[in-house]
Write a structure and sequence with these properties.
The structure holds two protein chains of two kinds.
Chain A (H helix, E strand, L loop, with lengths): L3 E12 L2 H8 L1 H21 L3 E6 L2 E6 L8 H18 L1 H8 L5 E16 L2 E5 L1 H12 L4 E5 H7 L3 E9 L8 E9 L21 H13 L5 E6 L6 H13 L4 E6 L10 H10 L8 H14 L5 H10 L14 H22 L2 E6 L6 H12 L7 E6 L13 E5 L5 H12 L6 H11 L3 H14 L2 E4 L2 E4 L1 H7 L4 H11 L2 H13 L2 E2 L1 H7 L6 H10 L3 E4 L4 E4 L2 H9 L3 H19 L7 H10 L3 H17 L3 H17 L6 H17 L3 H10 L1 H7 L3 H16 L3 H18 L2 H17 L5 H15 L5 H18 L2 H17 L3 H17 L3 H14 L3 H17 L5 H15 L2 H17 L3 H17 L3 H19 L7 H8 L9 H6 L1
Chain B lengths: L1 H14 L9 H16 L3 H15 L6 H13 L1
The chains are: A alpha/beta, B mainly alpha.
């Protein structure tokens, strides 16, 4: 059998006085005695369904519940213990006659989780603490008796008689253990045969909560309403929504539903993908043409059909959009448009009829979905709909506190409601008081826990129902309840037969929701899957999802309990089998399943496959502008390379890096960008010349400039030019020329004529490359170069071009940088008010951290020129942020704003010295072009002083500008100011 | 005198930089600063010369506060 973690009952025997007998009668007699005793005890164990694991001199160890699982293994073990004692007593005279001794045994019994599996040659071995405790209990037993642990007693309670033997401190255990003597079996100890009919218990309680939802639905016919349903696991969030949906069925309300799952946390827009699937009636495994047909019909019905919208939906679902349908759009633009489309579909839907959008388990939401939900929640002027969100208390959505958002906390159910729930489940009118108290105290207001307790007690035989009445042993019930929902679930899973457990475990590896066909493929040895699924439903562990044909675990905790019962190796095997099956089924639609495949191959420890799909999932996230998720996948991919360097070829590493560093540069974290490229530089070089290598080198050069590492940027740029020349195609030239122009703005500039010629070549080349990033970053670089030379009119034309390009393709990055350039140019005309306006518009329009940060810098510069007091605090915050992320280039500019801010604050000497030192440092670092701006700023400040309108007196100027007083810049000094 | 020398040094470093377009706004600002400096130092003709050149160059941006400043300074000098 496969090794697994399972609940077992272990029985240990030890013959009293065997050593003395052996010494007195000799080893041969002792051996023959043990042969007879072993046969007797082994027979009893086998009769009760146990397995003798080993004979050890004068005793044995037997296991109940493995390799064959029994729901009443503890009872069987107790029967075996009493059977051994009885048979030995009955055979005592025979033994006396044959060996001159009346053998007696001490027996120990304990139940708990243990690792069970074959070590070799088909023999089953059980290992774990449960075994050790059983051995120690045996030593506590009186001769001719059996001792059992509280765990075994509780599980067999109601069917055995015991006598307490106090608490004992066992070696190696921190807490004393309650010990009982096994006194006998109860006459009526039979397995409870008629399990309660399972399924959803009738709904009790939560009437107030349903009323709240009803009222919000009424209000949502006129305006947007959002209700956050908050509760601990098992409090009934999903059930409340289920009941509410049942009511909606008759009210003509259209329901859009999706849920987040821990498996999908890093899948961008996961719950909205489900919303789309549900709304457009898409099911798993459908042909691509059927999906297209349904999407077309749905989009037409909502008046939203266009080639681009259809392509965006297909891309969202991980399918290939028609060739050219998304041409000219990169991940950022596709992501923005996908979100806008989803939002507009909801708007159109809510206009057609009352609409409820339900997103469950928000605590597992991905970043992209949370952003979209934030937009929906904030769009009070666009929607008349009810948005219902469920989540655990630890999740705090950012929209809490808005007037149209209310929070509905699911408090623990009162005892009376829990009792009604239990009664309904058992099919009885009234619950006996002791039972009611035991259940409600343990469940503590948690409906799921209460349901599980009922299943646990009835399955274990501690509670029986007949003729509308319940029979139980109060002491047994109160003592038998596991202390937590998790442990209770673990025991229930442990009770299943091996076949059923294997199916359930395989399902748990697939995830909270699983496809029966995939389950069938994953469990080659699990027998009839349909029967297993029927059992899962019967046992209320999983249920069919009618809309999709899938099955779903009743609760995430149930899935977790099952998953955790698997040992590492079989779990890995299952992950691998599932991954291979998903891969096989996906055919040429691997992108659709990239996250799933990445997850399973990673868990299966197949690094080569895992790397491919992790990188694919990262690129997919970038394709819909989901940075948080992209970062997660790429981080995981490159972390894998760290531990398994050979899991990817050099070309694969370079290709993945090209995507990864683009994401990092959008995020404006050049320290990280340069570090990762430098870490893999040898592999990039070994990968040879390629377009991904060009893109990687381009972003490396850009990141080095952002980092203020100009000489290194120059060297990287030279390597990039050389590679582009070797490749000799237009895209390579476009990327190389773009970073070349950007670098030359700041470091070792070309002549104006040369730069104009380069810019013309770059514009021409970039025009042939389908990459919006290249279009705006190139124009921004050219605009900066013109501004640095003082060619403001031409630079203004470039800024207008950036805005036009951005507006034409609705690209916030291009608009943001166009605004930044206009802000800068307004500053050169001393129009600081307009400069501030442009910068603030830029902040609003910009999309990536990079373009937002550039506009923030300009805002600070404008504020300081306008002598606005808030500029000092903003400048300080900005400088800290730049320092933290290694943005030395922006830090240089913020240093100028900082010096000016000091002067505005009246700290003339400090401000002037600061600017003088900054100019010296920039010049020393070869950044004469940048230093020019601060020279002019400083010169103007001096002129104002000389003109007599400003303090300080001229002696201050004289002191700070003397050659002996040139400050040396240092980051520590800068941060300490 | 120390301050004036410092201003001239700073401006010279910019205006003599081959990177800077002598017909551009950066050069215009150099002229404006020198013009305002000369005006403060009561060297009228030199100030008018610099400010007039600044005005010519700044005009390419259209009406701006910088151009207004130059115009105002020139009016003061008349």
């Amino acid at each position: 059998m496969e090794a697994e973690r399972r609940q077992v009952t272990v029985l240990f025997t030890d013959m009293v006085g065997f050593t003395a007998f052996s010494e007195a009668s000799g080893e041969e007699a002792a051996f023959r005695l043990m042969q007879d005793v072993a046969k007797l005890t082994g027979d009893v164990v086998c009769e009760q369904g146990g397995a003798v694991q080993s004979f050890m001199g004068d005793g044995l160890m037997a296991v109940f519940g493995a390799p064959v699982a029994y729901e009443d293994a503890p009872l069987k073990a107790c029967r075996a213990a009493l059977g051994i004692i009885d048979r030995l007593q009955r055979a005592a005279d025979d033994f006396q006659q044959k060996f001159g001794a009346r053998p007696q045994f001490r027996i120990g019994l304990n139940t708990g989780m243990a690792v069970v599996g074959e070590v070799q040659n088909g023999s089953v071995t059980v290992m774990g603490d449960a075994v050790n405790i059983a051995a120690r209990l045996q030593s506590l037993a009186e001769p001719g008796t059996a001792c059992l642990s509280d765990a075994t007693r509780r599980l067999a309670e109601g069917r055995i008689e015991v006598e307490p033997r106090g608490e004992h401190q066992l070696r190696g255990k921190a807490e004393p253990l309650k010990v009982f003597k096994l006194a006998g079996l109860r006459a009526d100890a039979t397995r409870f045969a008629a399990a309660a009919k399972r399924g959803l218990s009738p709904y009790v309680g939560r009437e107030r909560e349903l009323d709240v939802l009803e009222r919000n639905l009424e209000a949502a016919r006129r305006e947007l309403r959002v209700v956050d349903i908050v509760g601990e696991p098992g409090m009934g969030k999903s059930r409340l929504l289920h009941e509410f949906r049942l009511r909606l069925g008759a009210a003509g309300v259209f329901v859009l539903a999706g849920e987040c799952s821990p498996d999908g946390k890093q899948t961008p827009l996961m719950p909205f993908i489900e919303v789309v699937r549900n709304a457009f009636a898409l099911s798993g495994g459908e042909s691509e043409s059927d999906v297209v047909r349904k999407l077309e019909a749905g989009l037409t019905a909502l008046g939203k059909l266009s080639p681009e919208n259809l392509a965006l939906m297909l891309n969202l679902l991980g399918l290939s959009p028609p060739e050219g349908a998304l041409a000219g759009l990169d991940g950022v633009l596709i992501g923005e448009r996908t979100r806008a489309l989803l939002s507009s579909l909801l708007e159109a839907r809510s206009r057609a009829s009352p609409t409820v959008l339900i997103i469950e388990d928000l605590h597992w939401v991905d970043g992209a979905s949370e952003d979209l939900l934030g937009e929906i929640v904030g769009a009070t002027d666009r929607f008349c709909a009810l948005v219902l969100l469920s989540q655990r208390p630890e999740h705090q959505p950012k929209w809490l506190g808005r007037p149209h958002v209310s929070q509905l906390s699911l408090e623990p159910l009162p005892a009376g409601h829990l009792q009604r729930l239990v009664c309904s489940r058992l099919g009885i009118a009234e619950l006996p008081e002791t039972l009611a108290r035991a259940v409600t105290e343990r469940a503590d207001g948690n409906a799921l826990f209460a349901e599980e307790i009922v299943s646990y007690l009835t399955e274990g035989g501690a509670l029986k129902v007949g003729g509308g009445k319940v029979k139980y042993d109060p002491a047994a019930v109160s003592g038998a309840l596991p202390v937590s929902l998790q442990s209770l679930l673990a025991v229930r899973v442990g009770r299943l037969s091996p076949e059923r457990r294997a199916a359930l475990q395989a399902a748990s590896v697939i995830g909270r929701r699983f496809d029966p066909q995939l389950l069938g493929a994953a469990t080659e040895s699990a027998g009839d899957i349909q029967a297993a699924l029927a059992d899962m439903e019967e046992l209320d562990l999983a249920h069919a999802v009618a809309s999709t044909g899938e099955y779903e675990f009743k609760h995430a905790l149930v899935r977790d309990a099952v998953y955790q019962s698997l040992l590492t190796e079989p779990r890995m095997k299952l992950h691998l089998r599932i991954a291979e099956e998903v891969e096989r089924r996906s055919g040429n639609r691997l992108l659709e399943a990239a996250e799933t495949l990445a997850h399973h191959y990673r868990q299966a420890e197949r690094p080569s496959k895992a790397f491919v799909y992790l990188a694919m999932a990262g690129a997919k996230s970038l394709r819909i502008y989901s940075f948080e998720e992209a970062g997660h996948w790429f981080d995981a991919a490159f972390s894998l390379i760290g531990t398994h360097p050979d899991c990817a070829t050099d070309s694969q590493v370079t290709a993945a890096l090209a995507d990864y560093v683009q994401y990092l540069n959008f995020s404006f974290v050049p320290k990280t960008t340069t570090a990762i490229i430098e870490r893999f530089s040898e592999r990039i070089d070994r990968g040879g010349d390629s377009q991904p290598a060009i893109v990687t080198h381009h972003h490396y050069a850009m990141a080095l400039v952002f980092s203020g590492r100009y000489p290194e940027a120059r060297a990287a740029q030279d390597r990039l030019f050389a590679m582009a020349e070797r490749i000799g195609d237009t895209p390579a030239a476009a990327y190389a020329l773009t970073s070349g122009i950007y670098l030359s703005v700041f470091f070792v500039p070309e002549s104006a004529e040369a730069c104009e010629a380069t810019a013309a070549r770059a514009i021409s080349a970039a025009g042939e490359v389908d990459d919006p990033y290249l279009q705006y970053i190139l124009r921004f670089a050219i605009g900066l170069d013109l501004s640095w030379r003082g060619r403001a009119t031409k630079a203004m034309n470039v800024a207008d071009d950036l805005l036009a390009v951005g507006r034409r393709i609705n690209d916030g990055r291009s608009i943001g940088l166009g605004m930044a350039m206009k802000s800068f140019l307004a500053m050169t005309g001393d129009d600081y008010g307009r400069s501030l306006e442009f910068a603030e518009s830029g902040i609003m329009m910009a999309r990536t951290p990079a373009d937002v940060l550039i506009n923030r810098l300009l805002k600070i510069m404008a504020l300081s020129a306008l002598s606005r007091p808030e500029c000092l605090a903003l400048a300080r915050e900005f400088r800290d942020e730049c320092a933290e992320n290694g943005l030395k280039q922006l830090l240089d500019f913020s240093e100028g704003a900082w010096g000016t801010a000091l002067i505005i604050q009246g700290r003339f000497g400090a401000g002037l010295r600061w600017l003088e030192a900054l100019i010296s440092r920039l010049e020393r670092d070869g950044l004469g072009g940048t230093a020019n701006w601060f020279r002019l700023l400083l010169a103007e400040i001096y002129v104002r002083m000389i003109s007599g309108g400003e303090n300080p007196p001229l002696r201050v100027v004289g002191r700070i500008s003397s050659p002996s007083c040139v400050w040396q810049w240092s980051p520590r000094r800068a941060s300490g100011r | 005198m120390v301050a004036e020398a410092r201003v001239r040094t700073l401006v010279k470093a910019v205006s003599e930089n081959s990177y800077v377009d002598r017909e551009g706004t950066m050069f215009a600002r150099c002229e404006m600063i020198l013009g305002l400096l000369c005006k403060a130092k009561k060297r009228r003709s030199e100030a008018v010369s610099h400010l007039t050149e600044a005005k010519r160059l700044l005009a390419q941006l259209g009406p701006t506060p910088a151009l207004d400043r130059v115009d105002l300074a020139l009016r003061d000098l008349q």
